[in-house]
């Protein structure tokens, strides 16, 4: 693909040529396994690149299903390739990153500085969508009902297992009590745990035992250091141990681990503040 770019010099012509970079490696997480693959593969194919997909070991079947669907609609063999593994994950990722045959890497997941180092040896193009510790800030001037609705929509998508999910809820002191009471009522009235195939259910399980244990550890650390669980604070009493109760924590302070780390679970830590400073 090429196009002429306007030149400030009438005696010269600027020609912009767009070419595929080559094989694109796609490393995806487990929380939105099909959608993550679809949007990355779409960009690669539109650019004329073939793909190697390495999905999370927690959700390999989504990647396999995606590749099979691509074959069924006519995508040639070898254009979309899938590597699945639940062992030697670091060595597989290293091989992909260091391979001179791979010319671009698109990664979504927790922060991995090592990917830069591994890809630098072959000067790959890199696109990284990493983890964070997003804040949700509510000032005294806010409409409390509107703020709570916005928080509910942002926080409890996929049971809190989303990279855009807010982790630290800062509420100014003037509306703190009202905000917490409104949020507590909304959570208790509108969040229903259970089988996602049931129409009334809107909050599902966490991905695996490791993630439930991590959320438990963050909540327990907060409670041991003075936080109060106004709702939840423990695993749900259900047939599967992967359900964690939607949890509302107050009196959260910066020295708690839950303040510092991405939660990836249905837990809302609320922090009171006085001024912007």
UniProtKB/TrEMBL annotation:
GO terms for molecular function: succinate-semialdehyde dehydrogenase (NAD+) activity. It comes from the Eukaryota. Residues 3-277 form the Aldehyde dehydrogenase domain. GO terms for cellular component: mitochondrion. GO terms for biological process: gamma-aminobutyric acid catabolic process. InterPro entries: Ald_DH/histidinol_DH, Ald_DH_C, Ald_DH_CS_GLU, Ald_DH_N, Aldehyde_DH_dom, Aldehyde_DH_Superfamily. The active site is at residue 129. The keyword GTP-binding does not apply. Keywords: Oxidoreductase. SUPFAM superfamilies: ALDH-like. Belongs to the aldehyde dehydrogenase family. This is Succinate-semialdehyde dehydrogenase. It comes from Caligus rogercresseyi (Sea louse).
């Amino acid at each position: 693909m090429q196009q002429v770019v306007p030149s400030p010099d009438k005696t010269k012509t600027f020609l912009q040529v767009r070419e595929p970079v080559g094989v694109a490696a796609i490393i995806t997480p487990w929380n939105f396994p099909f959608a993550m693959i679809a949007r990355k593969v779409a960009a690669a194919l539109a650019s004329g690149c073939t793909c190697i997909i390495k999905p999370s070991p927690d959700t390999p079947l989504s990647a396999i299903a995606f590749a099979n669907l691509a074959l069924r609609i006519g995508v040639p063999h070898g254009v979309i390739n899938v590597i699945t593994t639940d062992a030697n994950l670091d060595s597989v990722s290293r091989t992909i990153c260091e391979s001179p045959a791979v010319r671009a890497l698109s990664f979504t997941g927790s922060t991995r500085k090592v990917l830069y180092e591994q890809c630098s040896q072959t000067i790959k193009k890199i696109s990284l969508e990493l983890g964070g510790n997003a804040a949700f800030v509510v000032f005294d001037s806010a409409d409390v009902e509107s703020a709570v609705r916005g928080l509910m929509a942002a926080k409890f998508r996929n049971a809190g297992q989303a990279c855009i999910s807010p982790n630290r809820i800062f509420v100014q002191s003037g509306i703190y009590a009202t905000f917490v009471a409104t949020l507590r009522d909304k959570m208790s009235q509108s969040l229903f745990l259970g089988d996602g195939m049931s129409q009334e259910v809107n909050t599902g399980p966490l991905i695996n035992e490791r993630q439930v244990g991590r959320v438990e550890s963050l909540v327990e650390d907060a409670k041991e250091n003075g936080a109060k669980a106004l709702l939840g604070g423990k695993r749900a009493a259900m047939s599967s141990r992967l359900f964690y109760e939607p949890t509302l924590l107050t009196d959260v302070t910066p020295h708690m681990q839950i303040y510092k780390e991405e939660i990836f679970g249905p837990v809302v830590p609320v922090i009171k503040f006085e001024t912007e400073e």
